Amino acid sequence: MSAVIDSHHDDHHHGPAKGFSRWLYTTNHKDIGSMYLWFSLVMLFIGGAMAMVIRAELFEPGSQIVSPEFYNQMVTNHGLIMVFGVIMPAFVGFANWMIPMQIGAPDMALPRLNNLSFWILPVAFGILLSTFFMEGGAPNFGWTFYAPLSTEYAPPTVTFFIFSVHIMGASSIMGSINIITTILNMRAPGMTLMKMPLFVWSWFITAYLLIAVMPVLAGAVTMMLMDIHAGTSFFKAGGGGDPVLFQHIFWFFGHPEVYIMILPAFGIVSHIIETFSRKPIFGYSSMVYAIASIALLSFVVWAHHMFTVGMPIAGELFFMYSTMLIAIPTGVKVFNWLSTMFKGSLTFETPMLFAIAFVALFTIGGLSGIMLAIAPADFQYHDTYFVVAHFHYVLVPGALFSLLAAAYYWIPKWTGKMYDETLGKVHFWMSFISVNLTFFPMHFVGLAGMPRRIPDYAMQFADWNMMVSVGAFLFGISQLLFLFIVLKCIYNGKEATTEVWEGAKDRGFEWTVDSPAPYHTFSSPPSMESLKSSS
Amino acid sequence: MFRAIKYSLSLVAALTANVSFGAWDDLNMSPGATQLSQEIFGLHMTVFYVCLAIGIAVLLAMAFILFKYRKKEGVKPADFDDSTALELTWTILFALILIVLAVPATSVMIKAYDDQEGDINILITGHQWKWQYEYIEDEVGFFSNLSTSLDKRNNLAPKDENYLLEVDEPLVIPTNTRVRFLITANDVIHSWWVPDFAIKQDAIPGFVNTGWTYVNEPGVFRGQCTELCGQYHGYMPIVVKAVSPQEYSTFIKDKKEAKIQQALLTEKLWSTSELMEIGEAIYQKNCVACHQVGGRGIPPVFPSLVGSEIVMRNKARHIEILMEGVQGAAMASYAEQLSEVEIAAVITYTRQAWGNAETGDGKIVIPKEILDYKTNKL
To answer: What pLDDT score does B16 carry?
Structure first.
């Protein structure tokens, strides 16, 4: 063991094993966190490549490069990969790296479970992607896989898809159990629940959402499996089943799922805005209550995805009102972020730029969300590009920007090296401009009447679609720059200080350990007194 | 931020200067052709302006803060982190704005949900990938297919104004009449959307949803299927033609006569070449989507008809498949979509074409056999 030289800190700990077995057998939260993050970056490029195929096909009216059938496979797998393979695992990666360090714990509570919940993910996506090479092709029924298109009329590979979704769900549930256990049992002495960093709070609530709804998704796909192979008729109208039941079950999972993809972003952005405003977060407790109320409301709004299925008017009105209510806690969060920056001392490093863009563009996505909540108006918006614009505004400049912000914010702590600030800013501006170029015109074509999930479109949508495609290609290229920046940081970055960001030392335990963070941190718990501005 | 968005948009607009960006119509919802659609449009604009105002206020406040409080030498940041009064104020403000929006939304919703019987009731059935319209009172009906040619879709011919929004036979409705639509589906979920009527109702197998309209002026209104329904989801448009009540009754009269003519044709004596000619046209219109131009399909989902046992030697089963569809597969029943002549013709065509006649029994099917099948079933 003498080969491991780490003399100035915790010398009774051994370093990581060498080679591939380090990663296969690791129970270290930092290793597992890194694997989650690399995995989601790889999936980002796979899902992104599918988006490029979609935009190439839609560059001009007329059939361009793929068949309508393959186009549907692209649309379906782009959605599935971005939701389950990019945004969710990336947030779990940040949770793995940062939650133990933010609460002063030595590791996650259940490290072997942690290893398992990561390693089954590549298996799940290996299964999903392998369907591209099978007879009948990959799933082609949209990421929402509405029955009976996904049951009686699905390609035979749907069974692989179901298996893959089950594994993803198992991974998420295990990860959530681990996160909740860690947060409840392993906080540093003196860190009461209402003193926890907001990222920890946001994940604490998200983990409960996951545990609540992942079994519902598992139930939905199991019923599909039974309908396909066991002769049941859960969703088969011909056998007395109910296709609308599928949508109710799916969206009872699906709407909390939407918030699973944005709540941790709220936590991340709160930390970044606080640090670069050099001012404590405004309204810490209302931030916590806002996240909690968004999470609770997410269970009673699901049918706003189904305003056109022919619900009774009482249902339409209930889901319209409950959905509108979500605007209140969301608005509180936006105003609290603005108030945090108000009278601060702002600097605009790359993480801050992404966080500011998050607030601005998430607001646009939130406002189009209010429009969509208005049920009679939704008769015109539903399943058009207006919806595509809305959810991409909250997921790309929303969730994805928060992930990029978080990566820039914490990478110096992980690697001990600074990223290239100039390139980071170039990456930000390229992403910012192209993301708006891509998704803003979608509002226009949606209102003008372009349905979503179509491989070809009428002439009146041509101009805007071309602009959207140009924006999308630029956005795709911009993310290759991100990969370059990360690699350059790891191999060729300047040394980072312990504090990394001015004044950060007072804002969280993670900024009190060396950069790079040692393989094992907080073998003995830190003291809350060491944080000056603990809220 | 907002300026940046606007600049980036106008920059690209300038770069693509030769492309003419249309007027307001291409940016916004259409007010439509009915009172309901205009009310929904008005509601949309109200909500839009409220959201726009909030958006501009937030982004301007943000721009101001970002500029004013950027880090300066010697200026210390404030350290306040709470203000219950302020937080309560804006929470109440948000709630008030939402109430202001909820009131008109509720009243429009109640108007849209008027499901009294119509003067005319039309049953709309979604099929992969065409719409079926049946006039319930008059007992006539037809299928409406995309009429844009494959050449246009494959960029071999120039596209025109109604590219992908044109059909072989539009739905005809009378003006100044309350028309009620009963919407359902035969296979997967579709969604019947005509923006100018502000009707978007999912067509769901096993369910009958309703929508209604009352059109004042004659006109042609176009829409599309808005629920992913398989590979040709983008190719099942809707065209509704509103005509005067007089014109409408002529249309219905013609339809009824055509129905009688069709029945007479079944009794006629047909030659193989006559059947082949009709059959080929039917095949091109209804079958190529799945079974492909050469009849080889896309196995395993869409089986090949070339050298198939059923097509070559099992005439009875061949008729049965066309009439009943195949359970658990994409093959639908054509008993209602096609006339007896058309079904007999397309069966004959597939049994004769692509060398099937040489390798198989080459039997033809005459319209009478299809009629007999129907009669025996009763």
So the answer is: 46
pLDDT of residue A487: 97
What does chain B come to in residues?
378
Q: Which residues from chain A sit within 8 angstroms of residue B27, using beta carbons?
A: 444, 447-448
What is the rounded distance in angstroms from the CA atom of residue A137 to the CA atom of residue B134? 36
For residues B228 and B322, membership in a common domain is answered with no
Catalytic machinery residues of A: 78, 107, 143, 171-172, 255, 257, 259, 270, 304-305, 330, 333, 452
B226 vs A contacts (CB less than 8 Å): 382-384, 451-452
Identify the CATH number of the domain in which residue B368 sits: 1.10.760.10
Q: What is the pTM of this model?
A: 0.88
> pLDDT tier at A534 (50, 70, 90 boundaries)?
very low
For testing contact with chain A, the best of B7, B15, B98, B331 (most A CBs within 10 A): B98
| Contact state of B26 with A464 under an 8 Å Cβ cutoff | yes
Residue B221 domain flag: yes
Mean of pLDDT values over B75-86: 87
How many Å separate Cα A535 from the centre of its chain? 27
Q: Are residues B252 and B292 in the same domain?
A: no
Which band of pLDDT confidence, cut at 50, 70 and 90, is reported for residue B123? very high
Each residue of B305-325: pLDDT tens digit?
888 888 888 888 899 899 988
Q: Are residues B221 and B329 in the same domain?
A: no
ipTM score of complex: 0.91
Can you give the residue range of the structural domain that contains B287? 269-377
* Judgement on whether residues B232 and B337 belong to the same structural domain of the protein: no
pLDDT of A278 reads: 94
**C-alpha dist (Å) from residue A157 to A76, A127, A161, A166:** 13, 10, 7, 15
| Number of structural domains found in chain B | 3
Q: In chain A, where are the structural domains located? A: 30-530
Pair (B106, B193) in one structural domain = no
Contact A313 B110 (CB under 8 A): yes
Q: Residue A117 and residue A100: Cα distance in Å, rounded?
A: 17
How many Cα neighbours within 13 Å face the side chain of A174?
A: 19
End-to-end CA distance of chain A: 42
Q: Is the pLDDT of residue A7 over 50?
A: no
pLDDT of residue A319: 97
Superfamily of domain A30-530, CATH level 4: Cytochrome c oxidase-like, subunit I domain (1.20.210.10)
- pLDDT above 90 coverage of chain A, percent: 91
Residue spans of beta strands (DSSP E) within A326-368: none
Kind of pairing between the strands at B237-243 and B171-174: parallel
Q: What proportion of chain B, given as a percentage, has pLDDT over 90?
A: 54
